[in-house]
Batch of 2 targets.
Target 1
Amino acid sequence: MALPPWQDGVYAALKSAGVRQIGYVPDAGHARVIEMAHADNDMHAVVCTTEEEGIALSAGAYLGGQRSALLMQSSGVGNCINMLSLPINCRMPFFTLVTMRGEWGEFNPWQVPMGTATEAVLKATGVHVRRAERADEVVEIVEASARLAFDSHIPVAVLLSQRLIGAKVWVK
Amino acid sequence: MSEGTLDRRAVAAELVRTANTAPGGPMLVVCGLGSTVYDIGAAGDRPENFYLWGAMGGAAMIGLGLALAQPTRRVLVVTGDGEALMGMGALATIAALQPTNLSVVILDNGQFGETGHQRSHTGLGTDLAAVAAGCGWRTTVKIDDMAGVMALAPRLQAESMLAVIRISPAEVPRFLPIRDGALLTRRMRDALGVAAD
């Protein structure tokens, strides 16, 4: 599958924000960033069994003086709710990139409920939400949102729209 | 299944003594939500302690993030069976990285002590040391007497492992250390010499 070139720019934005640990539960929309993280000797790439692990990882990284980011898809946001009390109580930065499912040409109806609720759930738990719709704005939004998270010590999520990453094509 | 007999406060006191006397400098201790927070706090508060009053299931992963960020320091996660069970996937996540400066010690009373002593999965047969071994942890130990705890101490200062210490489910008086997460965060970073940002 051809990977959109903005994913290289996303990785560069994470690097320039000083991110040294990337936790992730895979999604095709994050594939290039995950691959680059594993290939980078100055990055800890941590595959998680569930998304809230990445929030705890980020907290530990911050305690130790490193910056961390979490990559997940929208279905994983629901797994994160209680763990988000951690960065909020501790006044820690938290930064996550969320690839959206269930909103644009979705084939799988099971993705729709959590995809529909993702932004509301994040906001309800105190996360600041930004959204990227177009390839030419993704990198700038990731850069600005990373600064917001790390410089203002708040939880920030960037939603990468399904239209942007491309709806999954299923072949029977 | 027979109950553990070890006094949890005596075990915690030995773990904190171990943390304070590590050759590479004070070990960084992350305590999982529940009674282990009281136990480690009662053994003597220290800036290198991070107490979780929520975020159940997150202790081991906080330990991992801290261990990766501070590769020259030793990190010790002390948690209970209930907290470890909620974050059991973390045992696989940590094993996949094999960090050399992180240990997880589970004080296992086989119960959810905080909520009315309901039996936990470990009280119903789950063996967390075997789970960890199955996840790929190279060193796992199970301890049920004080001689075992004393023998474990120097190993925790040098090795990475998952240890399950079976403790008595008897209730002990609560000891309530600091609950302010921002303060706990600030003082840990200060203790590590991390600049404010």
Note: Chain B has a mean pLDDT of 97.
Target 2
Amino acid sequence: MVLDILAGFVYSIIVYNIPLLYGTVGEILNEKAGSLNLGVEGTMAVGAIFGYLLGCRTDSLFLGILTAAAAGALCGLLFAFFTVTLQANQNVTGLTVTTLGLGVYYFVAHAVHSRSNWPMMQDCPSIVKGFSEIHIPLLSDIPYIGKAFFSHNLFIYLGIFLAVLVWWYMKHTTAGLRMRAVGENPGAADSCGVNIPRSKYLHITAGCAIMGVGGYYMALHINGEYLASSGWINGYGWIAVALVIFANWNPARAILGTFVFGIFKALEVYAGSIAFAFPALFGWLKAVPPKVFTALPFLITALVLVLSSARRSKKSNQPAAIGVNYYREDR
Amino acid sequence: MADAFAIELKNIKKSFGAVAANRNINLSLRQGEILALLGENGSGKTTLMNMLSGIYRPDGGEIFVNGERVDIASPEDAKRLGIGMVHQHYRLVEVFSAADNIWLGRNCPKYPFREKLKSVCAEKKGWRRLTAGGKVLVCGAGAAFSERLLRKKRYQEVEKICSAFGFSIDPAKKVYNMAVSEKQTLEIVKVLYYGARIIILDEPTAVLTVQETEKLFEVLRRMKAEGHSIIIITHKLNEVLAISDRVAVLRKGEYVGTVETAEANEQMLTDLMVGHRVDLNIERPVVEKKKPLLEIRNLTVRNDEGVRAIDDVSFYIRGGEILGVAGIAGCGQRELCEAIAGLRKIESGEMVHKGENIVGLMPREIIEKGISMSFIPEDRLGMGLAPSLSITDNMLLKTYKTGSRPFSPFVDRRRGRAEAARIIEELGVVTPSTETPVRRLSGGNVQKVLVGREIQSGPNVIVTAYPVRGLDIHSSYAIYDILNRQKESGVGILFVGEDLDVMLALCDKIMVLCHGRVMGIVHASKTSKEELGLMMTGTLNLVRDDADAGKKTGIARDTNIREDDVR
């Protein structure tokens, strides 16, 4: 019984943390190339709405993912065009992308919903099937552990795979090395013959495509239910920005970081059960109103941002040239 | 083509906004020679060289490399043409290892699949063609892929490159752990590894010690012997005469001429550079010295890492004298200056200004007491001036609370502008207007503004560190002159310097620091460069506790001062 609850708890932590992982990994790609993209929230929203609508219309999960990635990439291209080509301020542009993305999201969602042809996820059998848990022979059958770690849907494995892939790419390829150099000291990279605009465009776009897929996952996770007020992303994009710092710009560590944040989200549902399973240790959880757990990730986000920016450390992996546009002839 | 010039510039023009940085420059670099490029600050040397390295594009004129007309649109083009530049501010990624910094610009070999595929297909028949073709594709793609991976072997390879060029660098060492000279070596190796035959060095000796400079020159001579053509920018005339074959001189963006080094001397080069005769002697006016203005007793200060940067240091500065502080980089000069200005916490000790302890006072209170500090860090702008603000605003930074309207919420811009205009005129600052942001000025002019502002406030103690760092002769002498005039008016000056020749000529006494400890305070007229050098490295320590007399020896005393004036 206790183990059942624990397995369910871990399972739901993972379910909740994965969209954050997409956002975080995407943002790490942006930031490591020297671009502080604050448009995560908007990019995820745009990916979510277009991915969901198109995926449901065609009843294809694959097309949905592709659309979400493309929509996210488009947001990335917009950001790159403004900050790299036009040398606009990155903070302002990022906030603009968020505002614009959320605007597009609400506009499209409302327009479709008000004409009452909002697609229902349960009417799309192949999406429901594709989004259902994948049964891995042997691994999924391990008692408890199988339930907690090896009976998830496609997006969860894809997210972890992407995080590891990005980590490997940054650490072990020449292109990753060049991209990090662009984020650290564009002047040095330039004098070595690295094409800076190309590198920035490439990594911003790829990172934003990943964010878009994360948004799509969030849409599917709540069955594509139309939300008039809060929206699907609901601040997760901002948590992702903070998680980048929490993960110290390391995609592999981001897996762990998102897991920690997922705990609070999962507690919203599991607080009662945990209190029941461990009355001595966590009995007090019963007394905490569930809304506190909804607010906790945001509170901790704020704390992480404040503390990490107050602490100056040599060990921090923050790219030195983050937020600074590079113009070769600048004096 | 053998005797074509390595580089030939014809009528090169470049302007930034309304300011013409280069006007019709003609310059030629012979194969296998070392050409020194000489000019005052802001004469357009770096701009010109940046056009060769692809950072800037010329507005007009032609560039020939090895006799061929070329268009250098980017650093990559320059790299392809075999031109490498070692910038004054090193272009290295601090958090990368030496090997990764070199690897960054490595050209991955291309795998010409198509040709190989064609030849394989022509040889083989039938299904063998298919398998062989597939093998070519898979192996080629695999090789191309693995070539783009970062392997451990890159460390060995970089080490091999270094030893091939005769350098020793630890390839795994991170750049932020390197000393300045190591970084420079890395930059040179990088440039050589990219296959440069023409090497440009922008003020390579500005941050090096005498020994390191000598080492660098040996490297340059060796590179020259191997057939490389080198352009070196430097302000130091003795270096120009020591290393170069020819000297090209620029003045205010214009090309003055080129002379054979063998036929040149310091005076002649200075005159060419400045355009009129300059007296190369530094004067040391004798001023009747007053009582100590500032006394430092047993001062101990820790640096940012928590290590003792200043360890039990005592000295005093009197009105009408310049006390020089000599020492190798990082011996505690910076921390000493910061402590005096109230910017750094003092662990123990006293600082007495006119009989009043100033330990623990706010920087503003210290300024109001008449102690001014101007510290010129390596990047010149780091301390003292706000780069994006105009000269006027920078003037106001220190005086907004004093003067005509001390309690007004509004700043007196008119007064600030007048002060700015006065400094511009008196010190000969080259600037379009008083409202130009300071970062747009060239290094020498920035320093004049900083020193000028410090003097403007009418201090009685001036702490100045590296006021002539990176400055050309003309500006340096202007600054020495300013300091001497202040000294004559009874101001006490603490001068942290790096050029021993200058310190010997300018200072009255010189204090030598080594690892935060005083190695001795000597009269400038009674010491030598060699003695100072030994003290700087800690080989010679003049300070000894004389048990009999109950006082320390090795500290120069002034005869017209009684013991109880200085405890």
Note: The longest helix of chain A spans residues 2-32.
